Amino acid sequence: MNDQQTAEAQALRLVTARFPHALGATLGGSAAQGRATSASDLDVAILLPDSDSSRREVIRHDGRLAELFVNTVADVPEFFEWDRARRRGTVLFIYAEGLPLTDPHGHLARTRDQARAVLAAGPPVLTPEEWERGRYVLTCYMDDLVDTSPADRYEQLSIADHTLREAAHLLTAHHNAWTGIGKWLPRRLLSADPKRGESLLDGHQAVAERADPVPLVTAVRQVLDLQGGPLREGYSHRWRT
Questions:
Q1: Would residue 239 count as lying in a domain?
Q2: 105, 7: one domain
Q3: Which in 31, 87, 158, 186 has the greatest CB count within 10 A?
């Protein structure tokens, strides 16, 4: 039994033991893609009757850590819209691309169809104000990266991390694509724009390995040029009253 099959079997035992009344369950994340190891946690989305409650839980079952995304059937549409608004679609991807574990009455199949429809529509389009703010913030990080001495490694590495995150935000938005955090940031970034995404990731690696900011700065300029270039003087933002 390979790691993916082991993870699937463990997830099914978890659902059967802890949620015998489940209307559906699916295993997502790295485990569903065959990229997990025996030490990886399990991402499991579980559908429950409306008499129960929606929640997020982290438990350990059969010695393995599991993150549970529990929703009632009635709460699914509202939760999917919340997940879409974050532009990451974490649970949407679990339902859309995960491995079905149980679906006694067809609720999971219908929920998977809903998730796929939301993902196909893409994340929310950034407003003009959000684009301007994104350009300004990324320009600030880029300038800080240029100005920071390689001798200040703590600062340089911190700025590089923020630079990559903001660049990924703008580049995925440019393609109306989903973004991610952690290990999903490079995966989503490369999926949205293989060439520019790889340049950003290679640039970030150059800072980490050689204290060289030039490749990352060059890659960031390419991203900024997609939306009118760097933004410094002239930027204005009104606080909400």
A1: no
A2: yes
A3: 31
State pLDDT tens for residues 26-63: 999 888 887 767 677 899 999 999 999 999 999 999 88
CA atoms within 13 A on the CB side of 171: 29
Judge whether residue 233 has pLDDT over 80. yes
Q: Residue 173 and residue 175: Cα distance in Å, rounded?
A: 5
Contact present, 57 and 43 (Cβ < 8 Å):
no
In the chain, the amino acid numbered 52 is: D
Are both 110 and 133 inside the same structural domain? Answer: no
Neighbours of 47 (CB within 10 A): 27
In the numeric block, the tokens 């939301």 are attached to: 118
Domain span including residue 211: 128-225
Q: Which of 148, 67, 71, 158 is nearest to 114 (CA)?
A: 71
R_g over Cα of the chain: 21
Render pLDDT for 124-136 as a digit per residue (tens, 0 to 9): 999 999 999 999 9
Cβ within 8 Å of residue 162, ≥6 positions away? 141
Helix, strand, coil fractions of the chain, as percent rounded to 5: 55, 15, 30
Which tokens belong to 105?
A: 């009455």
Domains of the chain: total:
2
Q: To which H or E segment does residue 48 belong?
A: strand 42-48
Secondary structure string (H, E, C) spanning 132-152? HHHHHHHHHHHHHHHHCCCCC
